[in-house]
Design brief:
Length: 500
């Protein structure tokens, strides 16, 4: 992250040779997992939203997809501490995901804007190179995929290490089980490693039509592109510098000017946003010489649509997945998920229905990939429902909108033990607070006082204020806002322990 290290990196970069690490003992080389967490999950709206996208959600009554990804590489016999590359807006969610799984990351790198996987991987590699470690192998993984056979997955990674240490960029192809048109494909060519069944790559193919996908399945040498990679950090940077110097140079400049903010590394926005917004496939993999693909059959899914969720969900005798408070008569082949209220269906087929407190989605399964179009339409109309749920996570806890109208809004605010909101004020609204659980310390202007359960206070417009929970249990209050404007952007922060 220092300027000197990055300048040295620029000056000493050389072309990769086939003799790299030829004498290395692959068993002693540990791998740094790099978790890419910049996705928005628009095809899984309305459950996935901008403020809390699919990687941070639990779809199957288990851990979130991010947690599953992080835990996949927790074995210290094979892996070092992970690096996460994340949207800056999700930084506290990422930190909490690691914390609740008792994982201490090497770094959490914050992207000031989305620039796709080529740049995201580059800054993670720069973080490795700066550390000057001998083990510079990285395993790049999207944070929002599902892998059922995780032991088999780790075994495949270890088998691919030798080629990665010889300077190969190894990608992992998924053995296809049906002619999917929503995935890219990798065509394998010559066998590089007979024992471990690793091949050179003939070509990368974008999402095919149905006819092509069916031909790919029959040929047996096409695999789904998983977006999972294994290579040396130095090897990737060498290839990126040679094949796409614009991304390389801007990432180096952005990383060299990065600043430490609490437990995060904030990239320099001015340089990072100059990076072309392209994937690792376009920037490097399709052009580099030493590319290998290792097929895997590990029960993989990218959870990329509601159809994928439906396929993975348990079903009744009518091939329906009924989740939550759902009643169905004469209904077939449908996925129905109620997270708010009762859903009653009669005589429908092949539908996906998702009900939340603030919105309702109904689509034909054949249109599952089109949810992104609806998301974009709602975004164009500036609908709040694409941004956040009625319950919004914050580093200090959460708030949930219970009711709202043009001139009032009612929230349930939950504050974690030993946490506090920022010292703040509002230009357009006043607030009434009622404590329903716990003990609140309130700062209002020059006054400080304590509120217990069933006690309340009033915060006038324009008055500096803060809510603090110094207790060992959760604090809950009901907040009633009144005023001419009730948007979340009506806030001026004076002090904030979370660096916002």
């Amino acid at each position: 992250m220092t300027k000197n290290n990055s300048s040295k990196l620029l000056k000493t970069r050389k072309k990769t040779t086939g003799n790299t690490y030829t004498n290395a003992n692959t068993l002693n080389h540990k791998i740094t997992p790099v978790i890419l967490s910049g996705g928005s999950g628009t095809r899984l709206w309305p459950i996935s939203r901008q403020a809390n996208p699919k990687q941070f959600l639990d779809f199957f009554g288990e851990k979130t997809l991010f947690s599953k990804t992080a835990l996949r590489c927790k074995n210290q016999d094979f892996f070092l501490s992970p690096i996460a590359v994340s949207n800056a807006d999700h930084r506290f969610i990422v930190a909490e995901e690691f914390q609740k799984n008792k994982i201490i990351p090497k770094s959490i790198i914050l992207e000031p804007c989305a620039r796709n996987t080529a740049a995201a991987i580059a800054v993670a590699c720069l973080n490795i190179v700066e550390s000057n470690v001998s083990d510079d192998l990285i395993l790049v993984m999207p944070s929002d995929h599902l892998i059922k056979d995780e032991i088999k997955f780790v075994n495949h990674i270890n088998k691919a290490k030798e080629l990665a240490l010889k300077g190969y960029l190894v990608t992992f192809g998924i053995v296809p089980t049906y002619p999917e048109t929503g995935y890219g494909y990798i065509k394998a060519d010559k066998e590089l490693d007979i024992k471990n069944k690793i091949f050179t790559v003939r070509e990368f193919i974008e999402k095919p039509n149905k006819d092509k996908a069916e031909k790919f399945i029959k040929s047996k040498n096409y695999f789904w592109n998983s977006g999972i990679f294994l290579f040396s950090a130095k090897t990737y940077l060498q290839n990126l510098r040679q094949l796409n110097g614009e991304i390389f140079n801007n990432c180096v400049r952005s990383f060299s000017k990065a600043v430490k903010d609490l437990d995060f590394i904030r990239l320099n926005q001015e340089d990072f946003e100059k990076c072309p917004n392209i994937s690792i496939d376009y920037a490097v993999m399709e052009k580099a010489e030493k590319i290998a693909v290792m097929p895997m059959d590990i029960g993989w899914s990218d959870i990329g649509s509601w159809q994928a969720i439906a396929d993975l969900s348990s079903k009744d005798s009518n091939n329906n997945s009924l989740i939550g408070d759902v009643y169905a008569l004469k209904t077939k082949n449908s996925y129905i998920n109620s997270r708010h209220g009762v859903i009653a269906c009669i005589g429908v087929e092949n539908l996906i229905i998702v009900s939340l407190k603030d919105c309702f989605l109904v689509i034909n399964k054949n249109n599952a990939q089109d949810v992104k179009e609806m998301f974009n339409l709602l975004q164009k109309h500036k609908r709040e429902e694409v941004i956040s749920h009625t319950k919004v996570l914050r580093p200090w806890g959460s708030f949930e909108t219970i009711d709202l109208d043009e001139k009032f809004k009612v929230k349930r605010i939950t504050v974690k033990p030993n946490a506090s909101l920022s010292l703040q004020m509002h230009h357009h609204r006043s607030e009434h607070w009622v404590v329903v659980k716990g003990i609140a310390k309130v700062v209002c202007g020059n006054k400080e006082y304590v509120l217990k359960e069933n006690e309340s206070t009033y915060i006038p417009v324009g008055k500096k204020h803060r809510l603090v929970n110094n207790g060992k249990t959760t604090l809950e209050i009901i907040e009633v806002q009144t005023g001419s404007y009730l948007g979340e952007d009506d806030i001026v922060r004076f002090e904030d322990k979370y660096g916002r």
